[in-house]
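Q: How would the structure tokens look for this protein?
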Amino acid sequence: MHHKIKMADTAINNGTGDGYPGYTTEARPELFDPRAMLPQPSVLKPGQLSEEQVKRYFEKGYVVLEEFFSESELQPSRDCINGIVDDLAQKLYKAGKIPDLYAEYGFTERLTKIEAAFPGANIICSKLGAVPQAFKELWCNERLLNIVEQLIGQDIAGNPAWNLRTKVPRNIVTTVPWHQDVSYLDNDTYRMLIPTAWIPFVDATEQNGCLEVAENGHRSGKVATHQCCWGDTFYTILEEDEMKNTLGVDLDRDRRALPVRSGGLILFNNMIPHRSLPNVSDGIRWSIDLRWQRATDPAGLWGLKNGVVMRKSSDPNFKVDWTEFDSVNRHIVQTEYIKGDKANLEEEEFDTTIQGPWMKKWEIVHMNKHVDRFLEQEAASKGDKSVTT
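A: Here is the predicted structure in token form.
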């Protein structure tokens, strides 16, 4: 597929990125560094961190917690993932897209076999609508919320940007480049603390693609200028020179690989630069990233989906109501945001592309199938026929 794009449809690159909506010179370090640390309780609730660990989170931008979850807490999510993969295999097989169900392969192998037969299957597998019950239980885990309470207070909402990571081996789409999480969210999040828990369902190692962070990279309180999209993916790009010049990051000094065993987790904020290493092992590195925010803050998703309140200071017996949250499929509303009311593009059942509002935030420097479809959708929303295939 080849697209002809009129220059008027894209912002002009002036070398600084300041012609794009994501660009900012604002710096709010006090929202993310130790000045943002709340008074800590004298008596800790179950699961809560020591004051030293909380301090490390704000100083370094992250903290690694080993042996936090029991196997009985994680196994329902693994079972859920097995069900997601099986559902996808059944649909692809019935549609004649794959020659086999690969049912004899296990948790760390089956999706790899499906991906080999139908490239992009891992993307379809990650585009979930309603949150499966097993993931809800993990997201609302009492001990985990107790930690989040230490970071942002007692009024807690789940942020709508959650992701199941289907990191099959040797696959560029599952290798996430350097970025700040705010590069994918709207500009309200530049002034919000959004804690993330990155939870592996297998041991995460440097061989199978653990996280790597730029330690202290959040301390400037700045949002670096990103670009889009990296390689053959839909990911934003944060160049190393930009990290150095804007965020003061020296990767030779600040780079930290963070292997963590299943049962552990990594907590980090929405400003610290991070990436995932390539998976050069033979097994899938399954993980999930879950986010929270203060319940009074906007959800950071362009008004497309609200967060889900998980804890209220005024009601110790509060029960989470998932009805509204589950009724809005984030991936669908993100695509509709790009298309607009005028667009009438046919959705493919097995669409292996992802688009989102972040593609409007940053300069597009690389074309691929995800960007092609984004531009097609955007042009259709304007009634522009200059984009042709």
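Confidence is low (pLDDT under 50) at residues 1-15, 342-346.

DSSP finds twelve helices and 13 strands in the chain.

Upvote if useful.
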